[in-house]
Amino acid sequence: MSTPQPPVTQQPAPNWQAPSGSSYTSPIPVVRTHLGHAIASEWTKIKSVRSTMWTLGIFLLLVIGIGFLVALQTTDEDFGNVPYTVPAFFGLVLGQICLITLGVLVISSEYGTGMIRTTFTASPQRWRVLAAKLLIFFVVAFAVSASAIALVGLFTESLHSDTSASGTEWAHTVLKGALYVSLLGVLALAVGSMLRHSAGAITAMLGIVLVPAILPAFLMLSESMREIGEKMMEYNAPNSLAYIFELDNDGGGGNAQLGLLAGLTAAAIVGAFVLLERRDV
């Protein structure tokens, strides 16, 4: 027969207080985050995804491959009044689509997979994420496109430099050409941030690039719409690149076209930042 156990009384929890003057120190270092951390994160992302390698690889193949083929078909007389980088123009007309696609995918792919939630959890200040994406993409796009244009220019010059035809100075066409296609990619990134859909943003950007190049042929059939058609023809993407590469001496070196694209891109970036802060993920 078991003996009865005395009732268990619950003792009140001691009222513990930390000694006066002492504080808890976490073993995990706390670092105040800044834009540099977001830039490092976005650099890791853009260099580790396959879309970057594919789009930039095709871009280089188009610009350098077509540029070299065109350069091999040129003669000394072709470069009396145009820069040696002109063969790169023909590859850029197609290659700009690659940078547009990459610009959209840099941000829209995260919305498509839902990883953008993880990104914003790690970096609650959303403007840092978008600013880092814009900076990293622009630097990568500009470096790759400038290198491709310069390589085509050097190759072309090597074919014709031992002749009397010296061509015109072409360093500025490298910078302007790379800047133009890079701004197109940044514009695509901003549009992708606003639309949050890869197919929709790419389609919208193709419309921005292709419609002004096709529509003027129909607008100029009407006398009342001819002036609008001529302006669209002057500022569309292919003709803007032609002005930059001095294929039209009356184009002012493409400065007006660059200015228009820079203004449009800046407006899209402002819209992307505003919508990013106002909408839910």
TrEMBL record:
Asked whether the UniProt record includes Metal-binding among its keywords, one would answer: no
Keyword set, alphabetical order = Membrane, Transmembrane, Transmembrane helix
The segment annotated Disordered runs over 1-21
Q: Does the keyword Iron-sulfur apply?
A: no
Membrane spanning residue stretches: 53-72, 84-107, 134-155, 175-195, 202-221, 256-276
Its lineage opens with: Bacteria, Bacillati, Actinomycetota, Actinomycetes, Kitasatosporales
Annotated protein name in UniProt: ABC transporter permease subunit
